[in-house]
Structure formats: C-alpha cells, structure tokens
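Q: Joint fold for the lines below.
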Amino acid sequence: MPELPEVETVRRQLEPLLVGRQILGFRVMPGAERLLRGRSDTSIDAQLNGAVFTTVTRRGKYLGLNLDSEQVVVVHLRMTGSLRFRARDYEEESFTRAIFTLDAGDQLRFVDVRKFGTIDLVDQMDDALPELGPEPLSDEFTTEALWQELRGRQQPIKSALLDQRNVAGIGNIYADEALFLSHLNPEAPAGSLRPAERRLLRQSIRQVLEDGVAHGGASFRDYTDVDGSEGEQQYFVRVFRRTDEPCDDCGAIIRRIIVGGRATHFCPKCQPVRQRGRLVKSTRPSRSAGARSTL
DNA sequence: CGTTACCTGAAA
DNA sequence: TTTCAGGTAACG
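A: Joint structure:
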C-alpha cells in the first residue's frame, strides 16, 4: 500500500517520537513469524534490548530505524503494514503482528492485516535492501539517470516505473499519476521515449511524489499514519481509481486497464497511443522517399 | 518478459 | 460468492 510519499510521511512523524527512546523488548505475535524472514524474535529481542533510537531514515519504500548500537531496524510495510506509536496502556489493536516495548511502557506496534510486511535487523541498512534505483527526490535522479534505465526496454513504461531497480519508491498510484502528467500512454515501450518526453516524465515523477508528501500521503484503502489518521492525497489524484469519471483536463472518460498485472488508470485522449512514424505520408514525398530507407 | 503466489478482509 | 487490493519474490 504505502509508496514513497506514505513512507516518508511515516518517517517524518516517527522520528521525533522515537529519537532518544530506549527499547526494552521486542516480540512477534503468534502466526506472524514470517515477517522476520526466518529469524526468531527472541534473538532480535536480545540484540535490541537497551538500544536507543538515533534517527529514522528512508530509502525507497524502506524505513530505517537507526540505533545507537550501530544497528538498524529495517521495515517494509508492503501492502497493508503500518507502524503505530502507542502510549502505555493504549487499547489492543487487531492485526498487531509485532511490538517494540519502549521505556516508560510506550509501544511501537507493527500492524499488518495481510502479513506481507517485513522487519530486519542489520548492521547497515543496505544489507537489508535489494537492488534499488535512485531516490527520485534527490539530485542523482536526473533525466539521464532515468533514461539509462529505460533505454532499450520494450516493457511498458508503467511496468518500468514500478520496477524498484529503475527508480526507488514509485508504486501503483504515483506511476499512473506521473504518466498522466507526462501525457504518456502506460503501455508505451519504456525505451521509446523522446528526449522531451524523458524530461517531462522525470519532472512529473518528482511533482507527484512531492505533492503526495505535501498532502501526507494517499489513503485509498488501508494506509494510515503513525497515529492512525489518514492522508489527503487521494483527494488530489487525476486518474488513479477514477475509472469512468471525466478527465479534469479534457472531459474524456478515464479508462482502467491491466498492465503488468496491475490496475492502470489513464485518460485515452490526454495519453494516446503514440503515432507511429509517418514514412508513408511525408510532406515531401518526392525527395525523402529515395534518400532515406531506414526508420 | 508476463504471470502466480504470498495473506486477509472489504466491497461488488 | 467473487473480485479486488498503495508490493515484491519466485516462477516459466
């Protein structure tokens, strides 16, 4: 569920709540053992005990809860995970999968209906991360860096944006929104973008992610922040889950298709299938015909 | 490369 | 009852 803006919202809320707080215990609830990916909660509990949070960082959709013990708790929320900071004696919540007990009895809870989320304890955040592309809101995310990943690819541009090895942090909402702002058809081959389209796509990605962060993330279904409240970005989307509604810009009816197995929303008029090269109907048929034989 | 599996509840 | 879901890893 959470994409970069939702995870960044959690990071910003969590940091001031956690920094300086000490961990007194950690446990995983019965039936949720898989979230530790094979490790036992007792071994993690032993390593965490007494450690103090120093900073909270983010890489793509991953959160790093950094400790003064030079270790990092790396969390991925996947589809339905959330981190809740709860004061001592706060009521129990359904679907709580793991609990960090802090000094004074407060708790950091990992709540996750579908049990896809993960928690790792490592010495360096990178140790828990798969191959990830550039951070889209950093300076390293240039048009050239983006094109480096897209060039030569036949895959639909939508699928390429969801591949975390190309760019880190984009998910289904922001991929559709960025493609709408870019006037790009989601099924266009990733490697087919013209230079101007690449620049616009890079800028659109940054725009939609920055807007998402500014609105505290999007809450379409499950996403809630650290105290359980919702974001506002769902009120600002242009196409995502607006199937059969008129496009804000042109009034055409927004369509929903499946691309790479994911629901995909777009405006067929603003994001048309690009015209193929028009070799047949050239404006100067007599001169160009013999001169050029290649595409 | 696209498809399937992993889970579970809400909505259609 | 069936379909769907802000994600990814493991398939074929």
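Q: Anything notable?
A: Chain A is about 25% helix and 20% strand. The beta strands of chain A are 23-28, 53-59, 62-67, 72-76, 81-86, 96-102, 107-112, 118-122, 255-259, 262-266.
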